[in-house]
Amino acid sequence: xxxxxxxxxxxxxxxxxxxxxxxxxxxxxxxxxxxxxxxxxxxxxxxxxxxxxxxxxxxxxxxxxxxxxxxxxxxxxxxxxxxxxxxxxxxxxxxxxxxxxxxxxxxxxxxxxxxxxxxxxxxxxxxxxxxxxxxxxxxxxxxxxxxxxxxxxxxxxxxxxxxxxxxxxxxxxxxxxxxxxxxxxxxxxxxxxxxxxxxxxxxxxxxxxxxxxxxxxxxxxxxxxxxxxxxxx
Length: 233
Ligand code: UDP
Prior knowledge:
The protein is an alpha/beta fold. It has a single domain (about 5-230), classed as 3-Layer(aba) Sandwich (Carbamate kinase). Helices cover about 40% and strands about 20% of the residues. Strands 4-3-5-2-1-6-10-11-9 form a nine-stranded mixed beta sheet, sandwiched between helices. Helix 3 crosses helix 4 and helix 6 (about 140-150) runs parallel beside helix 8 (about 195-205). The longest helix is centred in the middle third of the chain and has 25 residues, at about 65-90. The radius of gyration is 17 Å and the shape is globular. It binds uridine-5'-diphosphate. Uridine-5'-diphosphate binds near residues 57 and 140.
């Protein structure tokens, strides 16, 4: 039995399609992959981003919304995503709970680590919503923090449109090359931006390796031959 945490960005939920908030194929791929992991006796946690709905930094620069307010709006977006995915999973017979870092008792339960552990032991999937509940953080950092607190063996970042870590953004930089394995310190030194660097440093300082895979490899989440590994060194 191992505990796994998957992080999907809001963009991944939309399948990277402009004007689409939730891509049915993506949701279907998620439920299939997660159902298989649960059937194989893995305990599965999810962190979802909110970028398909709102991103704090964008709201604050474009609309003069105060940065902290904009970040709270971003966190609310992650709750909305979590509710969509929870109900989609329920509709496909995957027992799922949403645990939010912002108290919202009518909508979902609060993040209480000991209670999460019990859900996981019972085979329920847990989605962490509202990030860390604090402005100036991201859901990448949330993924690493929750994985550390709940003892996940694997943290897998599932990306839209790329199959792992590159030296640059392969969508815009034709010279970007694939990196199979790299240390977290090198990621920070080279300022590789595939993940939030605060998340990379938090993982490194606490001995947690990270993986990045593409959406198309979601069914091979635990297969280390796919994607990239960021080692905790
Ligand atoms: N956010 C935040 N604190 C957190 C997590 C998220 O303030 O702990 C806000 C932040 O504004 C961020 C937004 O929520 O832009 C959505 O999260 P993120 O950008 O990580 O989503 P993704 O890019 O993965 O879709």
